[in-house]
Amino acid sequence: MKFGYFDDVNKEYVITTPKTPLPWINYLGTQDFFSLISNTAGGYSFYKDAKLLRLTRYRYNNSPMDQNGRYYYIKEGDTVWNPGWQPVQTPLDSYQCRHGLGYTVFESSKNSLNAKLLAFVPVHDNCEINLLTLTNYTDAEKEFDLFSYIEFCLWNAADDSSNFQRNFSTGEVEVAGSTIYHKTEYRERRNHYAVYSVNHPVNGFDTSRDAFIGLYNSPADPQAVRKGFCSGSIAHGWAPVASHHIHLKLRPGDSVSLVFVLGYCENPKDKKFSAPGVINKEPADRLLARYQTTEQVMAAFQELKDYWTTLLSAYTIQTEDVRLNRMVNIWNQYQCMVTFNMSRSASYYESGLGRGMGFRDSCQDLLGFVHLIPERARQRILDIAATQFPDGSAYHQYQPLTKRGNMDVGSGFNDDPLWLIAGTAAYLRETGDFSILEEPCTFDNDADSTAPLMEHLRRSFQYTATHKGPHGLPLIGRADWNDCLNLNCFSEEPGESFQTTGPNDGPVAESVFIAGMFVKYGREYAEICDALRLDDERDAVLKEVAAMEETVMDAGWDGDWFLRAYDAMSNPVGSKLCEEGQIFIEPQGMCVMAGIGTDITEDGSPSTAARALRSVEERLDTRYGIILQTPAYTTYHVELGEISSYPPGYKENAGIFCHNNPWISCAETVLGHGSRAFEVFKKTCPAYLEDQSEIRRTEPYVYCQMMAGRDAPTHGEGKNSWLTGTAAWTFTCISQYILGIQPTLQGLRINPCIPSDWSGYTCRRIYRGVSYDITIDNSAHVESGVASVTVDGQPVTGTLIPFDAGKKTCKVEVVLG
Questions:
Q1: Taking a C-beta distance cutoff of 8 angstroms, is the pair 467, 414 a contact?
Q2: Nearest by Cα to 206 from 156, 130, 152
Q3: Average pLDDT in the 144-166 region?
Q4: CB 261 within 8 A of CB 195
Q5: Of 412, 531, 677, 727, which cross-links 478 as Cys (Cβ 3.0–4.6 Å)?
Q6: Cβ contacts of 586 within 8 Å, gap of 6 or more
């Protein structure tokens, strides 16, 4: 069942009913100011940090779902309605929501009065613009009232939602004409304020929620709207809001356009307050002056559209599959940019209160956006590295505003260090910019403890190399990629627990998954050393990698698949010896991607890697994707930690984690299995699941983190959409492993691994400033193997096209066979 359709020409998803299975959202913003907006105009706005600088309130886990937002109440006689349907929920004569790249458009009508609402964040200003156009489609004059409404957050969203004894006495606003200023705590220590304005004279306003809504009313029935006028309230403490009342008359066929601006303003640091609580309106005046006319707004909107057109032109394909084209060319890359901006901090599932930017998360996200914004990727790497500890371990998260490690979450996730190598290596392959390795980076943001980025990578590698357990496998620490696999937490007696704190302290659980990472990213680190002519270090790294590969084959192989781990008592996890949780997805993907067990056997039997992937297909695969492990845990296992706390089929307990499904797809290409790789890719790809939106429930244009596994009553139901490493890994999978356009330190390698029924495709790839027009000919209908490569008409030996900075364009023709 569909609730809308893709408009590929305009790069939009068009939603045709407000009653989607879940709120279907979009992200507005490209630099520092961001808004979340749903298909019913719900959501919230913030500047840089969703926790510390949130402008508007949002109520999670509420009923009705999806409350608050940017609301416009239209009152004509006794009829009150909203362009986005919520919160009044008056049935509309027509409704449409178009989510585009960085903007959303609502177009609705009631009683022949049409409302078109365009919402976007301009590229270069810290504000959200709402352009509301109202049109009278009758043959008689219409007279009606319009009420805008937002509810301010008192900046720190965590404190705002809990510290009522203080907050109910701090709210402050100021009103000047059609502009409402939210200045709570400005008198104290803040140098910023929020502004909400309209480019039209107002008939009234309210800034007190109690006055506008009514103490025992809800936003679905505000008393000011019911009465038809605002009271001019000025909030003193309690809950500050902003509402404009505008009385309008429209002759037949006439339209009126109103520009509403919600902005973040900051005083220049060298300017002092003129008096406590008195704001400097100059920053707001300058901001609002840029958006006083429809022409100004549309010029900014065009700039935004041009921004996205240019950005997404770095990688475009044309295949016979329309759904694949739209995901690669539009939505997957767009989602990668959103995850660059947000990491896992602010969505409809992440409240923005506890999590900041993830160390592991942000490093993986780099894989999906480094080709789009290499200069910003460079800074992101340096920001991440600055949170690392001197021993090579790292904070698991850091706050985007302060760029300091998150003390609440702490460290101890032993996969984190290796992801820094992965992200940096991806940047080097994309840009060839080795100067980043010379950039000084602090350890733990301590100015007295600084070293070049290369030293940070060195310590990342050495941390894993020096933290091994009894079997010679890497210690898992608090957890690895699977945050819920907590193998060093156990209890022998009620109330007693143990957490390992070092390589020799008590139980030493080990991770086969980290071992696979160590082999894969150790080799990438060795390539970096080789490029820098650090021959001795390269050889030492490769020696460590070879030893780990041998250890995995010795201690990490279970006969038909790779083990997942050893727990704190050295019992295997993810083994046929286990009653539950016999096989896990993660090591099968990562170890094969690393090349472990891929050697061809002398007797022609399947390689170790092939046997592992066959076990995945036989035991873990479902119609909606590959589950994380099987059998699901049916009872709580204290020795395994949080993984068994979930009901069977959800999240880490045999749910379908879309994030690691691409690892299996990538692994299949390593073995040349193009058809199987694409089969795995399609199962979690939203565009291929659009017809089943009533089952999946989440947005059909972006990936979600997980779907319920076959052990769950709601098999196939999606959750945690938008902010997921799935975006980066699926784009890496399809663009580099399946379509086979692979950046290397030396140039582009073209090595497709595709379904045999494909005839071919074309790709335009901007790489280090050179435009590559690539044609793949699969007339032979093979899954892998390159028969010939020509570059600008000249044959090339092998699959690598060395980078030539003297060229502006490059025509590449590849014949498979």
A1: yes
A2: 152
A3: 94
A4: yes
A5: 412
A6: 481, 482, 513, 564, 628, 660, 663
Q: How many other CB atoms sit within 10 Å of the CB of residue 276?
A: 8
Report the distance separating Cα 712 and Cα 598, nearest Å.
Answer: 34
> How is residue 408 annotated by DSSP?
T
DSSP 384-404: HHTTB-TTS-BBSEE-TTT--
Report DSSP state, residue 473.
Answer: P
- Per-residue confidence band for 270, with pLDDT thresholds at 50, 70 and 90: low
Contacts of 794 (CB under 8 A, 6+ apart): none
- Collapsing DSSP to helix, strand or coil, 439 comes out as coil
Pairing of strands 770-777, 4-7: unpaired
pLDDT in tens, 198-244: 999 999 999 999 999 999 999 999 999 999 999 999 999 999 999 99
Q: Which residues contact 384 (CB under 8 A, 6 or more apart)?
A: 357, 359, 362, 363, 398, 420, 423
Q: What is the mean pLDDT of the chain?
A: 94
Question: For the residues 436-464, what does the mean pLDDT come to?
Answer: 96
Rounded to whole angstroms, the Cα distance separating 271 from 277 reads 14
* Exposure string over 208-218, b if 16+ CB within 10 A, otherwise e: bbbbbbbeebe
What does the longest C-alpha to C-alpha distance in the chain come to? 87
3-state secondary structure 555-614: HCECCCCECCEECCCCCEECCCCCCCCCEEHHHHHHHHHCCCCCCCCCCCCCCHHHHHHH
Residue 93 CA to residue 95 CA, distance in Å, equals 7
Torsion of CA 99, 377, 687, 324, to 10 degrees: 120
Pick the catalytic residue from 8, 32, 444, 483: 483
Q: Which of 113-122, 218-227, 274-283, 492-501 has the lowest mean pLDDT?
A: 492-501
Report how far apart, in Å, the C-alpha atoms of 63 and of each of 60, 158, 410, 718 are: 9, 20, 34, 20
Q: How far does CA 645 lie from the centroid of its chain?
A: 26
Select from 452, 384, 418, 433 the least CA-distant residue to 522.
418
**How many whole angstroms separate alpha carbon 79 and alpha carbon 62?**
26
- Are the C-beta atoms of residues 92 and 85 closer than 8 Å to each other? yes
Q: How far is Cα 64 from Cα 87, in angstroms, rounded to an integer?
A: 9
pLDDT at 498: 37
Q: List, for residues 301-338, the tens digit of each pLDDT value.
A: 999 999 999 999 999 999 999 999 999 999 999 999 99
The sign of the CA dihedral 422, 728, 709, 612 is negative
Strand 794-796 and strand 440-443: pairing? unpaired
Please confirm, yes or no, whether 483 is among the known catalytic residues. yes
Contacting residues for 134 by C-beta, under 8 A, at least 6 apart: 74, 113, 114, 115, 116, 146, 248, 250, 255, 256, 257, 258
DSSP code at position 691: G
Average pLDDT score over residue span 657-678: 98
The residue with tokens 């390589």 is: 503
CA distances to 426, 748, 804, 812 from 771, in Å: 19, 12, 11, 10
At how many degrees (to 10) do helices 608-619 and 585-593 cross? 150
Whole-number Å distance between alpha carbons of 309 and 313 = 6
What digits encode the pLDDT tens for the residues 581-617? Answer: 999 999 999 999 999 999 887 777 889 999 999 999 9
Rounded Cα distance, 656 and 661, in Å: 8
Distances (CA, A) of 237 to 46, 55, 56, 70, 149: 21, 16, 16, 22, 18
Asked whether the CA dihedral 649, 655, 656, 658 is positive or negative, the reply is positive
Kindly report the backbone phi and psi dihedral angles of residue 542, in degrees, each rounded to the nearest multiple of 5, phi listed first.
-65, -30
